[in-house]
């Protein structure tokens, strides 16, 4: 493999990993507070992609308005999802929350299937993202460069909220001790709603960029990206924001480079990702950057 091809694959891996990272952050934020794997999280990615499509095609909005609007509406859906499916079960056994999350995922997918149809739709990728540029002698689509940059900007914004605001301080307190935080007078329902809002908006941003990278949208498009993002979150250390980002980048790079270096394994790419999940859970359940957490049940 020439150095040019290797650089091309590394750029592709970083771009894919940044998409996994964006979605993984939402998983890790919700888990950090509720100890809940929100299996409906990947479907928020699908909702954002469809919202962006209809904003551009049905309502004739420019993409500069349609895409941010899709992100905001997906954040609102995340809050509604918490209010309808999780808040009533806040004090219920953990298995009840997990079953509710799985049910919410199936509900969103099948509602989209009934309302929007199962025929895949093309995504209206703006011309500015379709341009091809030269990077160190490698020709890449400009979207491939923008994706990790957007991820880093959004990550910095999230870290500012988590570590420099009162809401972020409350989030960190809730992640350490749920009941004590409640006894200190913090409105946990509000903090959890904000957590769902932020995580869902990040998933929406990832969903729109995913749809531009793979411009075919269908009701089940969020399933595999959601599962891969979950693997990334576990790999990095679920409950740790930076760990989710590191896990996303490592998973994306690993998938691309394995296929590039050993083409015969291309058909096993997804299986290898799930093998990584199994190995991490067996030998390092807290992930690369995770810490042992207090069980809040």
Q: Give me the strand/helix succession.
A: HHHHEHEEHHHHEHHH
The second-level CATH architecture is Orthogonal Bundle
Q: Provide the structure class.
A: mainly alpha
Q: Percent range for helical residues?
A: over 70%
- Please indicate the percent range of residues in DSSP E strands (runs of 2 or more): under 5%
State the separation between the terminal residues, measured CA to CA.
51 Å
**Please, how many domains?**
1
SSE topology sketch:
Layout: H1 3-34, H2 41-57, H3 63-86, H4 94-116, E1 121-122, H5 127-130, E2 132-135, E3 138-141, H6 142-164, H7 166-176, H8 178-183, H9 188-213, E4 216-217, H10 223-236, H11 241-261, H12 269-283
Antiparallel strand pairs: 1-4, 2-3
Helix pairs in contact: 1-6, 1-9, 1-10, 1-11, 2-3, 2-4, 2-9, 2-10, 3-9, 6-7, 6-9, 7-9, 10-11, 10-12, 11-12
